[in-house]
Amino acid sequence: MKNASIGGYILRRLLQTIPVILGVVIVNFLLLQLAPGDLATVIAGEAGGATPEYIAELRARFGQDQPLFVQLLNYMGNLLTFDLGYSFRQSAPVLDLLLDRLWPTLLLMGTTLMVSLSLGILLGLLAAFWVKTWKDHLISVTAVLLYATPLFWVGLMLVLVFAVKLDWFPTSGMENVVAFHEGWDRVWDIAHHLVLPTVTLSVFYLALYARLMRASMLEQRGLDYVTTARAKGLKDAQITRRHVFRNALLPVVTMAGVQTGSLLGGSVVVEAVFAWPGLGQLAYQSLFARDYNLLLGIFFLSAILVVVVNLLVDIIYVILDPRIRLR
Amino acid sequence: MKSFFLTAAGLALATALSVGGAMAQSQGGTLVQITQPEPPNLAPYVSTSGPIAQVTSKVFDGLLEYNFDLEPQPSLAESWEVSADGLTITFNLREDVVFHDGTPLTSEDVRFTIMDVLREAHPRGIATFRNVTAVETPDSHTAIFRLDAPAPYLMKALHSAESPILPAHIYAEGDIRAHGNANEPIGSGPFVFTEWRRGEFVRLDRNDNYWRDGQPYLDRIVVRFIADASTRTAVLEQGEAHIAGFGAVPYQDVRRLEALDTIEVTTRGYEMISPIVEIIFNTQEPPFDNQMVRQAVNYAIDRQFVIDNVWFGYGVPASGPISSNFEPSGLFGRGIDFSVPDRIDIANRLLDEAGFPRDADGIRFEIIHDVTPYGEEWQRFGEITVQNLAEIGIRATLRYEDLPTWLARTYTDYDFQLTSNFLFNQADPVIGVHRGIHSDRILPGTVFVNGSRWSSPETDALMNAATVATDAATRQEAYQALVPLVTEASPVAYVLELRYPTVLSTQFSDVITTPIGIYGNYAFTHQR
Question: Is the pTM of this model over 0.90?
Fold first, then answer.
């Protein structure tokens, strides 16, 4: 009854996430109140000045004339019906704004995860395979360098070299706004635009995963079960593929799950450099505009994303290592 | 004296021909504009956030347009008449204008826009149209503004970026402040709104039924949003975008781009905007409650050095609260010249007289200098000011906060000593200048008004006179008397008139054709 147990497990885990997400919402709501200034002054500031009647009217419309706990209760109440509220600054429902930005974010996150995980694991494997040779040193030193380089700098350099000088890729954006391709041309166009941001965001994580994979491989190779397997008469290649590799993957997968949160954060910089229309930029803009409804919506969505990814990681665990039980 | 303007539709045609040249322009092409930051919405009738109108001025029309001398030109109104007492303004509307949904434009649309929208909900319109008591519509193409006091500045606030005319049958439905079309504007302008992909671009397509026959020439305008300044430069350099203004390109990059064959740079197109970089003092608290101390700081600032090194030459020293862009229209006055050769000696003498002697370390007093949170050049400006102040024995420490915090500090809590600031003169001193120095604009919680809290009955009276005077000579006299008084009191140090550079691709002609520059509608813009 393995399927039933996985279903029950997922359901139980999902229920457990509800208090986590509620906590995220409440803490963020209260934290945001500590920031000086409010949306009304920002809107009036952008306008280059406004009458006091106008500003007072704005505050009343935003519900800011209500006591704090009333505002919080209203927000929580709306949340129960998946009503994330209305962004007065952007004159649109928060949910619509978030959904518009979700797929570019998922696209960039997905390709980054794929590229950085696969290349990171491969490089880690190779380094472990060639341990203590010049090839291992080359991989390790490169990984440290990539890990230490600021993302925005990598991004700008890639733009300068591959877009401005060589003209291989577009400088920024998600698609060609002069041509407006359709169908498969559009898919190809978006893929073309996706290359530089993905590479930029990947190098950091790639370096991390490569280091981790190398260390993990070396550690597993020295464990007793490897000696047992060898005594059983298995060949080195079989041991590496069937036993060491699977076990060595566990810490990397764990790290990838934990890193999804920071992947969202790291993409703020990459999205800015490449004008990628993701959630990170939206969060950044709404913070400086004190657009709390929108910001809380983004936190809410990010919390859900992180929880879901970690659930996936736990399920992958079971597949990789049947000894781990669903409880 | 009767001020009487009557212009026939023929003039519009003549303008079109002279601007576009006698030969037919080839139709086609996509102009890509960079607007920074991304507009919060596309509702210019309730929000005056600058980036909004950079997009929507192509979608809507105004009653009027303006030439570079700030004189009104026909647009939706083909002729107009201002009565001698300034209390009645009659607009005769074109009869061939249809909105993008096919409905004809009538005087009811004008009445609705002015009375129900701009006068009620537009942050500046509330003040601009305050004196308008009614808009009468005797027939479907005549709109008569009735005023209870003259408002000469009103005639300068009728272009499509400031006062867009809305289709009443669409925008009268529901709450105008949270309207369903807030992000999908429908107007009568040369370009039709097609799509806004947030974080990426707004797409506007040619309006085939535009009332200016044969225009616009462009097939499409795409407005892109790129958060990173270096990327914006790279995009322009690569020809992936064709125009950017309002400081969207870092000033040091402008010089580099200018050297390319594919790019030209112009500082025209800001004559009706007139940005002024200034430093405002908290005049209600020591040490800047003392006029001599404020004057000393005014003398200490090295204006030309700031212009050359922070704004890379894109500016001229300010001679008072009013921009020299108003010199041709006669609304200009010149104040005390603080850039004299012995300015540091004068400043030191003033501070000695004011009773702030230097201590053993040469310091007279210490202050905190707040910085306008508008980007890097403002920080550079602050650093230079700190050095300038050190020369006269004032030790200043910089404080840099984000916009909402700074706005609350400067205009709500008045918890500052001296801060840099950035104000636009706009189309008329009544709109852009009075707010910074008039006593009725000392309004806690309202931003970009009189934050120094200085005023005097004499200057108030001069501004009141200039607000209602219907003839230009009276207004000019008032401003010529006002400016020296203000610079003597120095509630604000007016540092420089910023001359924003607009970066333009040489592929396109006739892009900047009005004093509102990239707030123009690009109807005449065409490929070379």
Answer: no
